[in-house]
Amino acid sequence: MSKMKDEIFEKNVIAATTAWLESMVIGLNLCPFAKAIHVKKQIRFAVSMAVDCNSLLADFRAELAHLVATNPEEIESTLIIHPNVLTEFLEYNDFLAVCDSELEEMELDGIVQVASFHPAYQFAGTKAGDVTNFTNRSPYPTLHLLRESSVSRAIAQFPNVEGIYKANVATMRKIGKAQLERMMVDWLDAEH
User: Fold this and answer.
1) Long-range own/partner contacts, residues 121-129 (CB < 8 A, 24 or more apart)
2) What is the 3-state secondary structure (H, E, C) of the chain?
3) pTM over 0.85
């Protein structure tokens, strides 16, 4: 791709991801901690143009280093969106173990954690079409880097952390698969 096409593509990927964040994660209150940092513009949207796992791993390392070197008041968490690699969910899921190993190697385990989102996300023990999988479905494969200190603070302020997942499952079931699939199309339409 040319530089201009890359910039347009990156802008579109961020637009779709922002639409997902605002309509799904914040709009449906799937993560009660996301709204505050989004409003404060403390979420970094990093689009990786990687087309293979080695390049993505290099981008992952760079974003980890950038996050820990930056004041949390500026960047609280980072979404690494990688539309061109690990588009198959099982490959993506396997890559999460590589991310965990990298956190250990960089001595960042306990400092940063990775949350996972994917257009075909599937929890263990569920069928691909199960509506509960939509809690972790995003427009593009995404690795969410979270500061452990931020997670701990958020959990301390939220009275019923254990209830979040159950509430999210109930929300997904109430909305229904057809509407959730329409929302996914709408996120991608936000690109244009």
Assistant:
1) 121/89, 122/89, 129/177
2) CCHHHHHHHHHHHHHHHHHHHHHHHHCCCCCCCHHHHHHCCCEEEEECCCCCHHHHHHHHHHHHHHHHHCCCCCCCEEEEECCCCCCCHHHHHHHHHHHHHHHHHCCCECCEEEEEECCCCCCCCCCCCCHHHHHHCCCCCEEEEEEHHHHHHHHHHCCCCHHHHHHHHHHHHHHCHHHHHHHHHHHHHCCC
3) yes
How many Å apart are CA 74 and CA 87, to the nearest integer?
30
Residue type, 127: K
**Calpha distance 71→68 (Å, rounded):** 8
Q: Please write the tens of the pLDDT for every residue from 126-162.
A: 999 999 999 999 999 999 999 999 988 888 887 788 8
Closest listed residue to residue 15, CA positions, set 60, 50, 45: 45
Domain ranges of the chain: 3-189
Q: Which residues, in sequence order, are bridge partners of residue 114? A: 145
